[in-house]
Design goal:
alpha+beta; Immunoglobulin-like; 2 domains; 5-stranded mixed β-sheet; 5-stranded antiparallel β-sheet; 26% strand; disordered N terminus
């Protein structure tokens, strides 16, 4: 075997190639750089001990990495939303402290010792479970994305919010630990005419949604942990419903009751809200699944290119409520030429997927877009394609291709191109 094709040869070649990408800038900075030639304070003094932060927290240098809200978006923060800083993250897992929040009556402060889950309606035996009862069922661990149906909703009529945190940040992707809902329903015994369930939250809004029994018995979880630790209060502590691939409003938090019925309830959140108003004035209802979607997170308006022209790493995330993402294409020129991105990390059903595209930037303006393909063969549409079918009256389920304009200085802006 030729030395260049051995594993060691490939590794050496890869290291050399990687070093060459930045050699010019690194070598220029090395000579006389005080970060190298001078001792830094952290080199000369002892740091805090092991119990300085009994519950760990990020470095204070990362204090800017946080959820953010848009003040004018809602009338009151009690019934509002904040956004995950997608541009600050990598990989596919959202840290618990950065997972976006959406509340309709504020964060319920629930005592787990007093929390109960009731199963009633068209069941053989109505049941009430304590948290300890729930913990005795077999549990599973699943990584899923949760996306608000209104994610990207402000972009229907044109470019509005300048940052992927605000255009696409009503989403998180975490590992949930919980009990398959079918086990709990089987314990109560669903009657033959039981075709729907209605989960209800214990918060002041009394959140309810109608869910078909087929979905309830398929992959729904009653979850109590998130990324290995107990759910955060803002994420439904101590118990929430997980409805993989379907709009986030159905993932009822602070879950206290599940009623089984023979038809949908048509409550507030599935009539006056969470329906899709079409151009002719009629509304689509029960549009639960979240369509295939992607966004470039870097470069983006909150994450400009900070170096001069040369080797540049583009990255983003893609997801689909109908399966996995085998492919993402990216364009640097607004769709004239498309390039297949490199998928990296786990490829899990109804979960985020990470993609990268490395290129040499010549310093000229860029029009960046990503286009995801899901495992069903569906391809993410342009805004024009989506509007042709649905008009511009909608708020929910905007999965159109997003465009960032990057100028010669590396500064990015949310734009729309025809």
């Amino acid at each position: 075997m030729d030395a260049k094709t051995t594993r060691r040869g490939l590794l050496k070649g890869g290291i050399a190639a990687g070093a060459g990408l930045l050699a010019g800038t690194t070598a220029a900075k090395a000579a006389g750089d005080p970060a190298i030639t001078e001792m830094q304070p952290w080199n000369q003094m002892l740091g805090d001990g092991v119990d300085a932060n009994p519950y760990g927290k990020p470095s204070h240098y990362e204090a800017h990495v946080k959820r953010r809200s848009v003040e004018w978006l809602t009338a009151d923060p009690v019934s509002s939303v904040n956004f995950t800083p997608l541009h600050e993250l990598d990989g596919i897992i959202t840290p618990n402290g950065l997972a976006f929040e959406r509340h309709h009556g504020g964060i319920a402060d629930v005592d787990p010792a007093k929390h109960r889950l009731m199963i009633n309606g068209l069941v053989d035996k109505p049941l009430v479970f304590t948290m300890q009862d729930i913990m005795r069922f077999p549990r599973e661990n699943r990584v899923y994305f949760l996306e608000c149906a209104a994610n990207s909703g402000m972009e229907w009529r044109g470019a509005q919010l300048n940052g992927c945190q605000f255009t696409h940040g009503m989403i998180h992707n975490v590992m949930y630990t919980g009990v398959p809902l079918r086990y709990i329903l089987e314990e109560a015994g669903v009657k033959t005419n039981g075709k729907w369930i209605m989960p209800e939250g214990a918060d002041a809004s009394g959140m309810t949604r109608s869910i078909p029994i087929e979905k309830a018995l398929d992959d729904c979880l009653v979850a109590f942990k998130m990324n290995g630790e107990a759910l955060r209060p803002e994420q439904g502590y101590p118990l929430r419903l997980v409805v993989p691939g379907w709009e986030g409003n159905m993932w009822v938090k602070w879950l206290r009751r599940i009623e089984v019925g023979d038809q949908p309830w048509h409550h507030r959140e599935e009539t006056s809200k969470y329906t899709d108003l079409m151009e002719n004035g009629k509304a689509r209802r029960f549009t639960w699944e979240m369509d295939c979607k992607s966004v470039i997170t870097n470069p983006s308006p909150q994450a400009p290119i900070l170096h001069t022209k040369g080797h540049t790493v583009l990255t983003g995330v893609a997801w689909s409520g109908r399966g996995t993402i085998p492919r993402v294409d990216v364009t640097l020129d607004g769709g004239k030429n498309w390039h297949q991105a490199r998928m990296d990390g786990p490829s899990l059903d109804k979960s985020m997927h990470r993609f990268y595209f490395e290129f040499d930037w010549d310093g000229s303006p860029l029009l960046l877009q990503s286009r995801a393909h899901d495992s069903t063969g569906y391809v993410q549409p342009t805004k024009a394609q989506l509007r042709e079918i649905r008009g511009v009256n909608s708020i929910y389920h905007n999965n159109a291709i997003q465009t960032w304009y990057v100028n010669e200085k590396g500064i990015a802006e949310n734009v729309e191109i025809s």
